[in-house]
Amino acid sequence: MNLPMDVILHSDCLQVLPSLPPESVNLVITSPPYADRRSKTYGGIKPNDYVNWFLPIADELQRVLHPTGSFVLNIKEIVVNGERHTYVIELILGMRKRGWLWTEEYIWHKKNCHPGKWPNRFRDSWERCLHFTKQKKFAIYQEAVMVPMGEWRHARLKNLSQTDRIRDNSHVNSGFGKNVSNWIGREMAYPTNVLHMATECGNKNHSATFPIALPSWFIKLFTKPGDVVLDPFLGSGTTALAAQQLDRHYIGIEKNPQFCVITQERLKPRLGKKPTNGHNGRRRTGNFDQEMSLFVLPASDTSSR
C-alpha cells in the first residue's frame, strides 16, 4: 500500500479507506452528514440507522490512524418527535466497544448561530467535537494553541496579598486551591475546551461548512508540520485548506463531484508551491514537478451524500 498525500479523492470513503496503509495518518478530523439533515446535499441517514452506518467507517479510521494519533468528530444530535435523539451517545458507546478511547469532548460555540424560535427549546449555538484516541498516550502539542492572557492580569497581579502567594485552599473545602503569584510574568495561558468561533458565512456552495479556524485549531493541537491529516467527508475542502496552510499533508475524500471542484479552486493558489516533506519520513508519491497537489479519482457512486 502506498500513502497518497496532498490529494482529493473523489469517491465514497468506505471504498478508499481500505486501500490506505495501516497506522499512516496522524489526525482524522471530519464532520460527517448529520442524521436526516440536508438530504438534498447528502441524501440523509436516518437517526436509527446512523450508528450502524458510521461504525464500519470508524473501524477503517481506527486501522489507518497512527497509534499516537487522534480522531476529532464534529457532530450534533437532532430533535426527533420533540426530544433529542440518542444516536450520538449510542455512537460513542459503540466506538468504545470497538476499542476507541473517548478521550475528551470539545464544544464549538457558534458565536453567530442562526436566529429562530421553538416552543420548547432555545436555538442551537454549539456543536460537539468528540476526541477519540487509540491509546492513553497520544501526540498533543498544547503550547501551539495557547492564548494571550487578558488585560485583567495587570490590575490583579499588581498588589498581591499573602494568600495570593501560596496555594490557598478553597473556602468551601472543595480541595482545589490556587497560587495567584504563579501568573506573574506570564503572557500566554492554556485555553479551555470551549472553542468560540463564528460559523462560515461564505459557505462555498456547501450547506454545512465549518470555519477554517476549527480544523486549524485541532491540527495545531494534535499534529506537527509534515504530519498527515485525513478528512473522509471533505465537503468543500476546509480541512485540506487548513492543513495546507499549516504545512501538513492532507488526504481528502469526497463523493460529491461539485465539492471536489470547489476544493480544487480553494487550493489552487498554492498548487505551484512544493509542499514540505515534513519530519515523519514519508515521501510524496511521484515527482512533484510532474504532479499537481490535487488528484481526483473517479467514483463508482457519484450521488450526493
Summarize this structure as a short list of keywords or feature phrases.
single chain; 305 residues; alpha/beta; Rossmann fold; two-stranded antiparallel sheet; 22% helix; disordered C terminus
Written overview of the protein:
It is globular and about 65 Å long. Helix 3 crosses helix 4 and helix 6 (213-222) crosses helix 7. The protein contains 8 helices and 14 strands. 22% of the residues lie in helices and 21% in strands. The protein has 2 domains: 7-146 and 190-290, Vaccinia Virus protein VP39 (Rossmann fold), CATH 3.40.50.150; 152-189, no CATH class.
Summarize the structure.
By secondary structure, the protein is an alpha/beta fold. It is built from 8 helices and 14 strands. The chain folds into 2 domains: 7-146 and 190-290, Rossmann fold (3-Layer(aba) Sandwich); 152-189, no CATH class.
Order of helices and strands: EHEHHEEEHEEEHEEEEHEHEH
Q: Give the mean pLDDT.
A: 82
Strand order within the widest sheet?
A: 1-14-13-2-3-7-6-12
Secondary structure tally: strands: 14
- Terminal CA distance reads 27 Å
| Overall structural domain count | 2
Estimate the strand proportion. 15-25%
Largest sheet: 8 strands, mixed
Low-confidence stretches: 274-293, 298-305
The class by helix and strand makeup works out as alpha/beta
Quickly name the level 1 CATH class of the largest domain.
Alpha Beta
Considering the protein shown, what is the CATH homologous superfamily of the largest domain?
A: Vaccinia Virus protein VP39
Q: And the CATH topology of the largest domain?
A: Rossmann fold
